[in-house]
Amino acid sequence: xxxxxxxxxxxxxxxxxxxxxxxxxxxxxxxxxxxxxxxxxxxxxxxxxxxxxxxxxxxxxxxxxxxxxxxxxxxxxxxxxxxxxxxxxxxxxxxxxxxxxxxxxxxxxxxxxxxxxxxxxxxxxxxxxxxxxxxxxxxxxxxxxxxxxxxxxxxxxxxxxxxxxxxxxxxxxxxxxxxxxxxxxxxxxxxxxxxxxxxxxxxxxxxxxxxxxxxxxxxxxxxxxxxxxxxxxxxxxxxxxxxxxxxxxxxxxxxxxxxxxxxxxxxxxxxxxxxxxxxxxxxxxxxxxxxxxxxxxxxxxxxxxxxxxxxxxxxxxxxxxxxxx
Length: 325
Prior knowledge:
Blueprint: H1 9-39, H2 49-60, H3 69-94, H4 103-145, H5 176-187, H6 189-192, H7 196-219, H8 231-248, H9 250-260, H10 274-285, H11 294-314, H12 316-324
Helix pairs in contact: 1-2, 1-3, 1-4, 1-11, 1-12, 3-4, 4-7, 7-8, 7-9, 8-11
């Protein structure tokens, strides 16, 4: 691995923020398809990623595939900054006199990074999922009731009973501000952190897999100890490590998505915790349901973390700070 090069905390935060903004802008439509595919239960609205994106554009317009992007763009900067900066912090903390980190220590550093990031990730995912799933819920309800029947697609949560499925007269696109306001008023801060356990269950194993794998692959692009790898090698390393980790934790991502989705369609299961969610998915949809959206997830995470690590290793944060000094 080589010695861990120390970078200032402000530079790490800038690198993580810039990388997150660029990455999310590029891959958000695929992330929307992933969320909608994972939330499908027995009544399937979409046959796959392409079908989901095509139907979304037809029914909601081009900007429909970016529904929820504002929340992601606003919160991805601190989320990515915390994740990458925390990993570097723990790696430096666990390093001994500049020696290579052992694999268990690399995994421990990744575990620390994954734990720290959920402070931002959990509420971000909570709000984003409601916005992303609104269109699927609208089409699902229309299929259940029939073309001429009532349609309930109000996907921002009813304040008291989030699993309500009674039809309303018209479709309303939810607002992140309204969702957050209602959750805070009714449930307090805990409302925004619904599914925190499931988020930890996904993000900690992801980081335990991703960071050590990336670091070891990226080492092969370093000609000399302590030297940065090229942008291309860092990008490819991030893509490979990200896709492997993403697919590995897809079953946990499915559980998190289902638990954090407040509004369910008619006939769809509601869940009371992680174990109940896993049991109902296994019984009603079979084991294959745990891998729903796996391809989409890999296609999102691979370039997202490839771009993140590429930007991070270029050192945009250091350049910006140096310019103002």
